[in-house]
Structure formats: C-alpha cells, structure tokens
Amino acid sequence: MKTSWRSASLVVSAAAVLALTTACGQDGGTTTGSQNVGATAAPGDVGDIGAGAGEGLGTGANGAQASPSAAEPAGKLSVSTNAEIGELVTDGAGRTLYRFDADTAKPPKTTCENDCATAWPPVAADDALAGEGIDKALLGEVTRADGTKQLTIGGWPAYRYAKDTAAGDVKGQGVGGKWYALAADGKKAQAAESAALSTRDDPKLGEIVVDKNGMTVYRFMKDEAWPKPVSACTGACLEKWPVVAPVEPEDTEGVVKKDLMTFTRPDGAEQQTVDCWPIYTFAGDKKAGDTNGQGVGGTWYAVSPDGKPVGAPKK
C-alpha cells in the first residue's frame, strides 16, 4: 500500500481563523477547527563477502589489492515491481540491479573494485538488451580498471548483490546507506508515496481507513464530534492510541472529504478527524493490515470511509 506527517504548522493557516467559529457539519468543515474542551549497515559496508568493509572499498586486508572481478552478462533487462521499493530493473535472470552512491553518472565512473566488486559484481554491457519498460537510449557502458565494459543505466554503473541468491531478492537495498536498486531511468528505485489517509478492503471488517503506512485508523466511542471535536483520550491513553496528525484533504484517497478537518487538543497538538470524529492508530498493531485494536474495551473501532465506527454496537 504513494510508508512523514506534515507538521501542524503547515495545516494551520489563515483558513483556520474562520474554522475556529465553524461547527462540524457546516460548510468549510475541511478547514482547521479548535477544541475548547476536553539493520542498516555502516556507511561503506559491502556485506560479509570479501575482506573490505571500509569507505575505500578498493583494497583487501592490510591494504593489499584483490583480484578484479569479471563483469557478469546482463541478458534482457526488464522492469519488475517490489511492494516496498517500487519499480526496479532486473537482468535476464530476474536478479535486481543496483547503483552505488560513490560512483558518478556524468561522466559514468565506477569506484567499486576488488573486494567491493566481489560483494557487488559488475554487470557486463556486452549482451545487455532493452526489454519491456527499458529505454534503449539510456543504456550505455563504462570501462573498468581491468578493461572490461560495465553496463550503465542513465549513466550509473550497474551491479548485482552477491547475497541476492534468487530472482526478486532485494537484500542489497540501502546497504551502507549507499547502495540502491536501479530504476529504469537510472535513479534510485522508490515506491510511490502513499496517500496520508486512504482505505483498504479488510477481509473481516470491509473497507476501512488506514494511514500512509497502511496502519489501521480507529475511533474512540467516548469522543465527541458535535458541535466540535473533543477527544476523551488523554494522558496514558495516548501511549496506546497515538493521534493521527493533520493531513491535507487532497492527500487522501477513498475517504469522504466532507468534515475532514483538524482540531486543537488541550495539550496544544493538532489531531485529524474523519467526519469530525478524532482518529487514532493503535500501538498494538505492529504491521500494516493489523486490526488488533478492533473492539478493545468495547470502545475502540476501525473507521469506515465516511467516519462511522465499523462493527460498533448500534445505540
């Protein structure tokens, strides 16, 4: 499911002044209201393969030069999609291709030699073919120190990661804060940013609201929405039920935008609402898709796109 909240200072604007006097359910309910009450590796790490783990990545133990690694054939390149990383380039065998921040694209230059090239085998340029999703014009080559030709994509030298043992593996992503899967344009592969609030179809609860990280959003039945939002969750309650920070209405998908507003809590923090009802996440949900907060205490329920509590007993 385009994993930072916008700060409250960006949400509170001149429109907030008007919203201070606008009750929920009236026109302009999407503006801000006011509540009166109530294991990344160390930089330069090449993994456990080879002796080198320092920034230079060009020497073996005690500074001795290691034997250069021959570039491996690329085959027919294509674009694959990873749920966390997004669209990335794979070789003919389905192996992920990577780029190294210490290299350059203009002009193309490779700095990964010796031990580094053992952990990050360079991709040969000779047999590289542009498959579906790949622009042939962005494919090129760079001459390595040993005279072999290495494939470049958008100018960036391409590598595999030795710890990727199967097609689709992306174990090299983010290693040392310098290695990243290659996108088809040569940039770092990056998943599209999720909407700040969206919906998903839960197999048990139906369509419910989730935050940008896919975490389930909840309502507290002791809160109030009319005429203005009031949160009854304070103090220790907030440790288990963190508030959802303000979002822009246009940064939502599938959520009813009428009365999608924020309000000021007694502690001065801003909290998001759906249909004027304050919304929260649950500390007991450990991953996207969890609904461990559903029905807790008979007062906490997931939220439908129109702000109603899902599965709550009817009064």
TrEMBL record:
> Which regions are flagged for Gly residues bias?
50-61
Signal peptide annotation: 1-25
Which keywords describe this protein according to UniProt? Answer: Signal
Q: Where is this region: Disordered?
A: 50-78, 291-315
The family database entries (InterPro entries) matched by this protein are listed as:
Lipoprotein_repeat, SCO0930-like
Name its species.
Streptomyces ambofaciens
Name of the protein in its database record: Lipoprotein
| Pfam families listed in its UniProt record | Lipoprotein_15
> Which superkingdom heads the taxonomic lineage of this protein's source?
Bacteria
